[in-house]
Amino acid sequence: xxxxxxxxxxxxxxxxxxxxxxxxxxxxxxxxxxxxxxxxxxxxxxxxxxxxxxxxxxxxxxxxxxxxxxxxxxxxxxxxxxxxxxxxxxxxxxxxxxxxxxxxxxxxxxxxxxxxxxxxxxxxxxxxxxxxxxxxxxxxxxxxxxxxxxxxxxxxxxxxxxxxxxxxxxxxxxxxxxxxxxxxxxxxxxxxxxxx
Length: 196
Fold this sequence. Notes:
Blueprint: H1 2-7, H2 14-23, E1 27-29, E2 35-39, H3 44-49, E3 53-57, H4 60-73, H5 79-87, E4 90-91, H6 95-105, H7 107-112, E5 136-142, E6 153-159, E7 164-170, H8 175-191
Parallel strand pairs: 3-4
Antiparallel strand pairs: 1-2, 2-3, 5-6, 6-7
């Protein structure tokens, strides 16, 4: 782009020259011989405040030094903040990717910052039950106060095939109580058949 605007010559390669000819009105060369990208805001209210922004186009050999200077001296910004800080005054096509890569390789950031990106739990799906009454899911629901019969929790047993819940009042949440009622659950369901 600089050669075309400065000397008016193209390379002769159609794939390289076509984008230069399309984008030539977005670039200017200053009186100091520096290449700037000129942007006009699309929103009218922003266009009234700042009708035009000039951003210096940075050559490849200076990009890493600029990113490292801004990142290290401005409090080790994360990639988005680093990009917005640089994009306000400077321009190059791969600025965001370069900012992300620099933040990933910054030793200080990797040692001190917590990664808040969403991590997905590994999926271990349950097998589909083949018949009624074989697998059960159990959990306790703690009562807010002790019932008149002395029960402090409800053992919730859900039959996985139908999703039918069985609520069994229990005096406490200990393993002994669960063991006592664990043998009772199949008999309870057998004596109280499921109704649909």
